């Protein structure tokens, strides 16, 4: 009977204080199961909030930390048909991602598209999926239509720029720092503007008065308030984060007379409702863009599971340039 | 050639200062036209804002004031088939309602349901229509489902109570004054609660934990903020007014994790898009309720057109018990 190293927690609190290493027993592989070796497992803000106990959805304790991971299939049960040894897969998020190995039911394991590196696969299922779904599930956008977003330099924001470009949509990207303008334009952004009170004045220059039907908000507060004014009659603002920790506010008249809608998006809810086929179709589309060079979010630092304290502290620092990840099998 | 007395205005400002009486020429009735004598024309808040120039939609000046009216057909053109002399009708709102008579194209004149008094017809097309459409156009409610609303003693709020009761829906009604509780219960309200911070505590008592899928907001500010917390997963808050003049605000997490939606409703937009048949079907349903005694909004005071200064001043006083109306042909 073999064991596997994990980063686990049995109570909520400061992540680096409640997390601990644990050797867990690895069960034998059943005939409809597979054994997966985890290659990369990011430390996402939602993982931090889960350890803190402040996230919207919390697993029963004790639990293994993390949800998102890329693994490689190393052993398959005799009845498993649609997975093979050596394939890159996403293990079931509910089992916890910060671990060396996992044994899982094959029907809950999702294969990544062919031809992706571990690093490309590792960033596909959350940020690019969020970006793509927000661009398609709320408003029927046609090539040439405008989309506006705040925090355009975030992981989702960068994916929005790349996916919108591939679909022929024009992006208006709001950022807080001048030095991001050139960087996002290089990525394919059509327009990059400062997220302040000059926006209203500059907006007409870039749209020529064309309607903006979709706004993507991950900031809240003043930034979201400004976004609501940019929308055309019947436009929708989709909120997927609240970085400013300020509530969203908007004028009553925009709802009544301009027929603006406020909606929210949470990719976890989409995955819960989606069929296996819908997920694989989405990933195929995103994988094709990744193979052409999209979604290159740099990995800032890789940690072994034994250095979880440093890793979790690092992940909570605010001005990160790229992902902080566990590499459980160096 | 006959003339008709109107209350008109040629510039925006304080309503009682910019309004004036004018004798306008009344054209001969064409073969596809009708001549209507106005029986009652309410002074609505939106009419006041239109004279002030602050409303979302303003007619070209000079204009006749008012939009909503009940008239009686007094003459019909030779080619008019579906209207008859003596019938109660709504003249085209765009022609202005504060006048003794109007000549209008028959296809823009809408007949009220049979068997209604002038007073019943006068209050049908705005408040009860707004209430009924908000209850049906956003969420698919089944008998026994809960609806929550603020300013439940407003014209629309009272209509919501009566229509919801007829449809088997349960209403939770928020008011600011204790003394309204008995009055609204007599009207058919299932629950009447004070619109303050005690709400959250009391809500579970009245719902027994059942989900609230629809909230109706005409206040904004703190009251709307409280309403957003009462909604179940996937619930919708529909805003149709902003009495507090405070923006709406809500927590980001409600949009993302609870999938709450914020929408707006403006009955004028509905009428613009609706077919004549859709309008007449809606009015037939509301007329049936009115004949059974619903929508009895008291008329506080009737003014002749010549007393427009007093009428407009009266209509701007905040604590009105009923409608202030013009009765152009006493």
- Strand runs of chain A, count: 17
Write out the CATH superfamily name of the largest domain in chain A.
Medium-chain alcohol dehydrogenases, catalytic domain
Text of the CATH class of the largest domain in chain A: Alpha Beta
Strand content of chain A: 25-35%
Query: What's the Cα radius of gyration of chain A?
Result: 21 Å
CATH topology descriptor of the largest domain in chain A? Quinone Oxidoreductase, Chain A, domain 1
Q: Any idea what the shape of chain A is?
A: globular
Secondary-structure element order of chain A, as H and E?
Answer: EHEEHEEEEEHHEHEHEHEHEEHEHHEHE
CATH architecture descriptor of the largest domain in chain A: Alpha-Beta Complex
Description:
The structure is a homodimer of 330-residue chains. Chain A has helices at 15-18, 45-52, 118-122, 127-136, 155-166, 180-187, 199-207, 221-230, 252-256, 267-273, 276-291, 308-315; strands spanning 3-9, 19-25, 33-42, 63-64, 70-76, 88-90, 101-105, 110-111, 146-149, 170-175, 191-194, 212-217, 236-239, 248-250, 261-264, 299-303, 323-326. The mean pLDDT of chain A is 95. In chain A, helix 12 (308-315) links the parallel strand 16 (299-303) and strand 17. The two termini of chain A are 22 Å apart. Chain A has 12 helices and 17 strands. Chain A folds into 2 domains: 3-123 and 298-326, Alpha-Beta Complex (Quinone Oxidoreductase, Chain A, domain 1), CATH 3.90.180; 127-267, Rossmann fold. Helices cover 31% and strands 25% of the residues of chain A. With 330 residues, chain A is of the alpha/beta class. In chain A, the strands form 3 sheets. In chain A, strands 3, 5, 6, 7, 8, 16 and 17 form a 7-stranded mixed beta sheet that branches.
């Amino acid at each position: 009977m073999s064991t596997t190293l994990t980063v686990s927690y049995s109570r909520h609190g400061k992540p680096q204080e409640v997390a601990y290493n644990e050797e867990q027993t690895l069960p034998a592989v059943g005939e409809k199961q597979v054994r997966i070796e985890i290659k990369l497992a990011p430390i996402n803000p939602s993982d931090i909030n889960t350890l803190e106990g402040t996230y919207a959805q919390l697993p029963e304790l004790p639990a293994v930390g993390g949800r998102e991971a890329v693994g490689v299939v190393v052993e398959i049960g005799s009845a498993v048909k649609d997975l093979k040894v050596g394939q890159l897969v996403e293990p079931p998020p509910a089992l916890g991602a910060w671990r060396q190995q996992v044994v899982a039911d094959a029907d809950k394991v999702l294969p990544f598209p062919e031809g992706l590196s571990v690093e490309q696969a590792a960033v596909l299922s959350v940020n690019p999926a969020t970006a793509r779904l927000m661009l398609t599930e709320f408003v029927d956008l046609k090539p040439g239509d405008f989309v506006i977003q705040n925090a355009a330099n975030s992981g989702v924001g960068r994916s929005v720029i790349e996916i919108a470009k591939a679909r022929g949509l024009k992006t208006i990207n709001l950022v807080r720092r001048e030095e991001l303008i050139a960087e996002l334009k290089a990525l394919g952004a059509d327009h990059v503007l400062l997220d302040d009170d000059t926006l209203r004045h500059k907006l007409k220059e870039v749209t020529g008065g064309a309607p903006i039907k979709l706004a993507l908000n991950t900031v809240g507060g003043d930034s979201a308030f400004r976004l609501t004014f940019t929308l055309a009659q019947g436009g929708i603002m989709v909120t997927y984060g609240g970085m400013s920790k300020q509530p969203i506010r908007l004028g009553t008249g925009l709802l009544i007379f301009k027929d603006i809608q406020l909606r929210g998006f949470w990719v976890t809810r989409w995955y819960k409702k989606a069929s296996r086929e819908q997920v694989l179709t989405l990933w195929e589309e995103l994988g094709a863009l990744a193979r052409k060079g999209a979604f290159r979010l740099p990995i800032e630092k890789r940690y072994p599971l034994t250095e979880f304290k440093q890793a979790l502290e690092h992940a909570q620092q605010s001005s990160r340039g790229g992902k902080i990840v566990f590499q459980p099998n160096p």
